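Onboarding guide, step 5: your first structure request.
Type a short instruction followed by the sequence, for example:

Predict the 3D structure of this protein.
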Amino acid sequence: MGMTTVAGVAAVDVGAFAFAGGWLRPDALTPARFVDRFEHAYGRHDGFRRNHAKGLSASGTFQSNGAGTAVCKSTVFKAGTVPVIGRFSLSGGLPDQPDKPDTVRGLALLFLPPGGQQWRTAMVNIPVFVDSTPQGFYERLLATKPVPETGKPDPQLMAAFLARHPESAAAMKIINQSPPSSGLANSTFHGLNAFHFTNDTGATAPVRWVAVPLQNGQPTGAPPSAQNDYLFDALIEAVARGPLSWRLILTIGGPEDPTNDATKRWPDSRPTIDAGTITINAVQTEAAGNARDINFDPTVLPDGIAVSDDPLLSARSAVYARSFTRRAAEPKRPSEVNVAQVRDER
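The system replies with structure tokens like these:
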């Protein structure tokens, strides 16, 4: 499948997704207002994503062991290997922000099973999401915008936000109990939203997933302050030494587990399925023809996977599409992360 076809699903009907999710009302948020808020918080950077702007494209495979077919009929989970296009990123709208240990890291993946269907997912290295609704996310963007005097968020605005959103305060406590790993290659990436999986017999179950690294050898300790891109540089060097792999673990929820609230964890006692291995064997500077031009819309799903009642899913789809439409029409400038430069310097 050519990259033109892959990117073609990006420009979706944002109004339809938003209305279906129930969060778009005349007096409430719209995708445009949401994207405007990202631009207000981080500035406008033509040609880049409005969130997770700093990134590195990747490519590889997913080798399914067939175990996932117990809960899902998608050909992604049939025993065999399918191509994968990926993107590593940092949260925030600054494409040249310095790498920091506590910045949320992302791994987005596009699975390309035979038959023309696709599975797109955008995961992060935190165990729960901070917000349960699009409105909460929007309000947090307002509360976390740095003020000019200090360069940090206004503590009174943040305190007021947390008072209004106790679910976010509880989620932050969970996140703070899970310190980040030393690098991108040894990060665990969580698909925070719940989805409904259906197998060949028609049985349906709520499912979340996580990508667990098989490598843990990246250096630990404080990063050199002079290395603006130390996380990405280390990833580039690691892939140059050999492929990187993650186990794709599916967690099967019970009837009492929430599917509409990404701030809440499911119990560790829930059954899991090791569905196979995601392998990244190459990374690329973002440019035309790779993951730069893919919209990792989490509602682009193959047969056997369906969205749940999580309100964030329709909102993410709508806002991602609006961001894609804007940046697609804008002039491009070089990515901060340059694979060739890192390898030349080493």
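Each response can be followed by summary notes, for example: The two ends are 34 Å apart (CA to CA).
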